[in-house]
Amino acid sequence: MLYVILQKIYIYESISFVNIFYLNMNTNHLAEKRDWLLSILKGYGSLIVAFSGGVDSSFLLAMANEALNKNLLAVTASSELFPEWETREAGDFAKSLGVEHLILQSRIMHRADFISNTKERCYLCKKHLIEELLTIANHRGIQYVAHGANIDDLSDYRPGFVAAQEMGIKSPLVDANLTKNDIRRLSKQMNLPTWNKPSLACLASRIPYGTPITVKDLKMVDQAEQVLFGLGFTGCRVRVHDKVARIEVDTKDIERIIDKKTRSFVLEKLRKIGFTHVAVDLEGYRQGSMNRDLTL
């Protein structure tokens, strides 16, 4: 009996040791990635960060600030494609770091090839933005421009990443082999308020490819999502299919949104915004769900 008890204690302690070993190994590996990223950033000398205010670009900006100090400029594109609150939050974050922040008024919605909303939409948008950033970099004597793509982004359809590569834009988070989870963990260690921020995407990503992008639809999406945010739903999307609003929320929130009281409230608000029909997607929220049409 004593032998059995001692054996169980030994096994428990062995498992605990293994868990601690792997925890330390993962922690050390994360620290190595952080050091690697700092080394990459220091090698740039001076840098413009394409700064959306999301998890990735906020982490990149904070790390670049640590590496480069004053040789750094954050540039945020502003247009109907992005909710105003995102631009405000980006400005507040840059200010909290003491980083110079420039808001660029984008004219992408004036381009017919963009608003026609082909599968190259993101490529065209990214290329347009990069052209603007390179002009600023040339005018200011800044050596490099970087964006916040991470390793996980490479597994999805990312034409914007292709544009960045073609135009020589740096992807330091990719070069440092950082995943989204790595970035969130490091952001939390650094006490960045963005560490658990839901993933962001431009409002055009709510409109199916082939459907022209209009300012009216973008505003309807923004207003509809504000309704959901106000109810405490995070990481949600309102996809537009003509006059139908297809709501994506986390699977754990589906029961809550179809609760009679919540459902009635959402239905009333979205119909006032201009949607004729409102539907909840039973599959729940998934990033880049509109890209599924490209594979069918």
Structural class: alpha/beta
Strands, count: 7
Label the CATH architecture of the largest domain: 3-Layer(aba) Sandwich
Strand content is 5-15%
> What are the low-pLDDT stretches, counting only 5+ consecutive residues below 50?
1-25
Radius of gyration: 22 Å
How many domain regions? 2
Supply the number of helical segments: 12
Mean pLDDT: 89
Fraction of residues in helices? 40-55%
The H-level CATH homologous superfamily of the largest domain, spelled out, is HUPs
Largest sheet: 4 strands, parallel
The CATH class of the largest domain is Alpha Beta
Kindly report the CATH topology of the largest domain: Rossmann fold
Q: What do you see in this structure?
A:
With 296 residues, the protein is an alpha/beta fold. It has 2 domains: 29-189, Rossmann fold, CATH 3.40.50; 203-295. The protein has 12 helices and 7 strands. The chain has helices spanning 2-42, 55-68, 84-97, 112-115, 121-140, 159-166, 172-175, 180-189, 215-230, 254-257, 260-273, 292-295, and strands at 47-50, 72-78, 100-105, 144-146, 237-241, 244-248, 277-280. Strands 3-2-1-4 form a 4-stranded parallel beta sheet, sandwiched between helices. A 3-stranded mixed beta sheet has the order 5-6-7, covered by helices on one side. Strand 5 and strand 6 form a beta hairpin. Helix 9 (215-230) packs antiparallel against helix 11. The chain is globular and about 55 Å long.
Task: Please give a quick description of this structure.
By secondary structure, this protein is α/β, with parallel strands linked by helices. The protein has two domains: 29-189, 3-Layer(aba) Sandwich (Rossmann fold), CATH 3.40.50; 203-295.
